[in-house]
Design a protein that fits this description.
The chain is α/β, with parallel strands linked by helices and about 325 residues long. The protein is built from 13 helices and 9 strands. The protein is about 50% helix and about 10% strand. Helix 11 (about 240-260) crosses helix 12 (about 270-300) and helix 12 crosses helix 13 (about 305-325). The chain starts with 9 loop residues before the first strand and ends with a helix. About 25% of the residues are buried.
Length: about 325
């Protein structure tokens, strides 16, 4: 593919900086590489003249270049009007790339700068596929990302692992990539198994086992309890899905302890403090933890309950689960 076949310009819309970077790398690699790069920041105090000059000038040796504008979402309407001229024709030496990195509303989509959607070049970009829009990593985009990641590395997942891993990983590509690098090193004969997920770190501030111990003791207040609900109230909807992932991780560890699974990779101290709860719950009630987590997730995704309501119902069900053990069931 020659450079004259590349997009006349690109507009990348995504709140995740690492995903933006990867998209730009992919675009330039598809064109065979060889592009110099000039980067400007729309929120910089001195933004302006140098950017317009970069769009208008060609290097001494006519080397093709990408002129990348980061964090352009806060620029005023007159900027988008002025941008129309340099985007009007194809410049084989200059590839403008505009990055919009504002928040993405799950229901309304990205919040575009005022006046951009009405510009003819925006409409042309949509028609030609020169506009790329992504909400970043979300519960819906995580599984496809994991599939692409595994295929690119010729790895495969054991049954059930992608779903659990999707709930465990942080919704940030930079942080998620660090955890995936650990798993890549753990893979045995090209396969990632459930036991390998013990190396994944997430929500370190949330001590799920302490939370379950508080429920087991019948507590309705305390430091751990308050932390969970304060995080839910102050965070976005993604927190509850990560809460469910931590819960299922604890369930899996206790299931492995109960069955003396050789894949259990926990420290002996972990075995010492968690084995008694695993024994008390037993197989039937441990298995019930998966049912409760799936019920909460389905209620949120179907719209039957808000994340707050689903979390409250889940905690009520957990109290009932532990109290049945005290009643001799």
């Amino acid at each position: 593919m020659t450079h004259t076949q590349r997009p006349g310009f690109s507009i990348l819309v995504c709140p995740d900086q690492e995903m933006l970077r990867r998209r730009l790398e992919r675009l330039t690699s598809l064109e065979g590489g060889g592009f110099a790069r000039q980067v400007f920041w729309g929120d910089a105090d001195d933004f302006g003249p140098a950017f317009w000059q970069a769009l208008a000038t060609v290097s001494l040796f006519a080397e093709p270049k990408t002129v990348v504008l980061r964090r352009a979402e806060g620029l005023p309407g007159e900027f988008w009007e002025k941008l129309a001229r340099p985007l009007a024709g194809f410049n084989e030496h200059v590839w403008p790339v505009i990055c919009l990195e504002g928040a993405h509303d799950p229901k309304k989509g990205p919040s575009l700068p005022k006046g951009l959607a009405e510009r003819p070049y925006w409409k042309v970009g949509l028609q030609k596929g020169w506009v790329w829009q992504s909400p970043g990593l979300t519960p819906d985009t995580m599984l496809p990302m994991l599939k692409d990641w595994a295929q690119a590395r010729r790895l495969r997942f054991a049954q059930g692992v992608p779903g659990e891993l999707a709930r465990m990983l942080p919704l940030n590509m930079t942080a998620a990539a660090r955890e995936l690098e650990k798993l890549e090193l753990c893979a045995e004969q090209g396969e990632i198994r459930a036991g390998h997920l013990a190396v994944v770190s997430f929500h370190e501030e949330l001590d799920m086992f302490a939370f379950l111990k508080a429920i087991e003791a019948g507590q309705e207040h305390g430091e751990v309890w308050d932390k969970v609900f304060k995080q839910q109230l102050s965070a976005d909807d993604a927190f509850v899905f990560q809460f469910l992932a931590v819960l299922l991780r604890e369930a899996r560890q206790m299931w492995q302890l109960l069955h003396e699974d050789s894949e259990f990779a926990g420290h002996p101290y972990v075995r010492k403090i968690k084995a008694p709860m695993a024994q008390q719950l037993g197989r039937a009630r441990l298995a019930r933890l998966w049912d409760l987590a799936m019920t909460a997730e389905a209620a949120i995704k179907s719209g039957r309950r808000s994340p707050d309501q689903a979390l409250e119902a889940l905690v009520a069900d957990l109290y009932a689960l532990f109290s049945r053990g005290k009643a001799g069931y």
